[in-house]
Amino acid sequence: MTGSATSAPAGDRRDWAIAAAAAALVSFLPFARGALSGRSFFFRDLSRQFFPLRLYALEGLRRGELRFWNPLDNEGVPLSLMPAGYPLELLQALWPTPAGITLVMALHFPLAAVGFVLLARSLGLRPVAAAGGALVYALSGFSLATVSLYVYAHAIAWIPFVAWALLRAAEGDRRWMGGAAVLVGTALSTTGVELVAQGVLLPAVLCLRRRDPRPPLRIAAASALGLALAAPVLTALGSATIGTARAAGFPTNAVLNQSVHPFTFLQVVVADLYGKLSNVANEWWGVNFFENGFPYIVSLYLGAGALALAAAGLAGRRSDRVPLLLLGALAVWVCLGRWGGWAPLVEALPPTWRAFRFPTKAFFTIATVVALLAAFGLDALAEGQRRARRVLIAAALGAAGLLTIAPALPMLVPRGTAWFLAHFFPPALSPAGRAARLDHMLGDAAVGGLLALAVGAVAAVAATGRASGSRCAAAAAGLVAADLLRAGAGLNPMVDASFFRVAPEVLRIMEAARPVRLHACDPMRSRAYWSARGQRPASHEVLTFAAMRDSLVPHYNVGAHVATALGEDTTGLVPLGRTLRGLSCQKLDALLPRLREGAVTHVASLDPLESAELVPVAAHTSPAIAPAAVHVYALRDPLPRLSLLGSTGTVVPIEERTDALTLSVESTVDSELLVRDGYGAGWRATLDGRPVAIAEHEGRHRRVSVPAGTHRLEMRYRPPGFSASLVVSALAAGAVVWLARRRSPSFSSASSATNIGL
């Protein structure tokens, strides 16, 4: 493929097996203790969104159900996580708990390392270089930060396999076309589409310099076939956006919300620039640089040592280093977003292209390029390339010099330091607090500098000939891995099972009240929450999650099987007719009519609510949320969930499942049956076995015309276009089988030399 991609890499199978095993083992270290002891990830989106929804889908699988509809959130919405799409998620059914999901997620990082080793071997690198690059890829701040975003952690594991297989397919072997398609389809089934697209772009860019149109076309064909294989998953995902803010297209400022400020690139070499990554929930001081006060991707750390190795890779002899450099530069520009002048370009995009909040996600390409170039640098060090070695020494020592003097900056530039203290940190932080945090930042920078200095010293030892290049490369890889581990090992804290359990008292209140549908007031807008947080500054992280959990806000309500309406739309995946639209429990007079329309019978709030329309039911507090308490109220005269409009009659549920509803309807005249459950384009109905139309009622609910008499009405949900997507996927699978049985006679023995054989 590239300069040395078709040459047989150094090392026998044993060396490669050791390299892959070592990279996999080290990549698992940040999670080993917690995951193997039954503890669980919980931070950010995991506990609020991904875990509840995934556990709900797993519950269905264990009952023999494929759940495409979630009736418990926002009056009912499509389930945004496929019940059985990504193959490795099926392993979670063996241990359907947060701890089980955590273990499967953690195992993706060793998988990512092994995939990178395969990719590096196909590019002609040595085992030690492949292992070192794999560790940079799997343990980079970006990779470790994707744990809280679930689907991206899965995608990162498969992208090296995708790039490896696409490079093989580009050589013309039809069997590899099919294999690459399977891997692309597997990666896309994680639904981490934005990262997978970047993974496909990588081998395409590496092919461009050959001035032969066939390799890029083969990559495009294999990718398209993989897209077809993943059609059912992507169709279900697309159906979840119908009628939502994403389908309408986010405003430009929302699309560019997570742009990377130019100063933020300093976090590439100073891990704790904006807060202690080992305790980021409680010690974060970067609020001035992020529109929401907190970044989408918490860490961009790569380390000065890895960057020095990447500089050595650029100075080496490989011809593929230039395309990688250009690809990395493009990714930097995308990451800058609004700071890179992207606003006019985004404005010109059609709405479907504005369904993603993208800029910071492009840092994945930067991290991947640095990992590959670092692997090139390690390979050059092992080979004894003098120019690359000199660049490595200079880059490492230069970075070390800048970083290790950081603690002395307050003495060297006192006026600049005073200005920085005044403008960088949150306004509410005391002068002593600012000084303490600055000391920590500068000390963290110095530690990274010392490790870079050690990498430069190893390269200097190699230059003297006192140790072999391979041993020095292994030592440099170990130092870089140690740097990444010390910066990222605490980034994804774990908790025990009790963290996810709704307070038993709350469950008892719900069981006694038997709400048809609950509205949970947002705790983050509650005076009681902020008062409690002010009294518990050292444990506000526990308070925050417990307040959302025990208030049963979406999606915490799913585990308790309590249906809700009009929750906060944090994902842009709630149909616009079922969002709050600026309403809240602080505006009860305007909110209560909308709650009635959604068949809400009860309201839960941390603040006491005063309204003649609300009847107090119970209140509960616990050590996790004290001194705050959950107050539950009954709404007077709620509207029924099932009713006949404009006529008398009866509606009796016969059977109800997550994505199906069977009713007995009796009416004296022709009438309209109103089901105050969420409308979706995939709902279909039959009346006495004959298809009937389902209309959307006031942008929220389902309505069916019913003639006079007694009838059996059945409603069932499947993602629109899902049957057609299964046909597309089946045809693609047939094409893969056909390709697997054919071998291109033009496939060269040279490219066969890259066969992995691990």
How would you characterize this protein structure?
- Among the domains are: 247-489, no CATH class; 501-635, no CATH class; 642-717, Immunoglobulin-like.
- Helix content is 50%, strand content 11%.
- The protein contains 29 helices and 17 strands.
- The strands form five sheets. Strands 10-11-17-13-14 form a five-stranded antiparallel β-sheet, with no helix packed on it. Strands 5-6-8-7 form a four-stranded mixed β-sheet. The protein has a four-stranded antiparallel β-sheet with strand order 9-12-16-15, with no helix packed on it.
- It is globular.
- It starts with 12 loop residues before the first helix and ends in a 6-residue tail after the last helix.
- Mean pLDDT is 92; it is low at 1-8 and 746-758.
SSE topology:
Elements: H1 13-36, E1 40-41, H2 45-62, E2 69-70, E3 77-78, H3 98-106, H4 108-122, H5 127-139, H6 141-145, H7 151-170, H8 174-189, H9 193-208, H10 214-229, H11 231-239, H12 245-248, H13 252-255, H14 304-315, H15 321-336, H16 343-347, H17 363-383, H18 386-404, H19 409-412, H20 414-424, H21 431-464, H22 469-488, E4 494-495, H23 504-513, E5 518-520, H24 527-535, H25 540-551, H26 556-560, H27 588-597, E6 602-605, E7 614-620, E8 630-635, E9 642-645, E10 649-657, E11 660-667, E12 671-678, E13 683-687, E14 690-692, E15 695-697, E16 701-706, E17 709-717, H28 722-740, H29 749-752
Parallel strand pairs: 5-6
Antiparallel strand pairs: 1-4, 2-3, 6-8, 7-8, 9-12, 10-11, 11-17, 12-16, 13-14, 13-17, 15-16
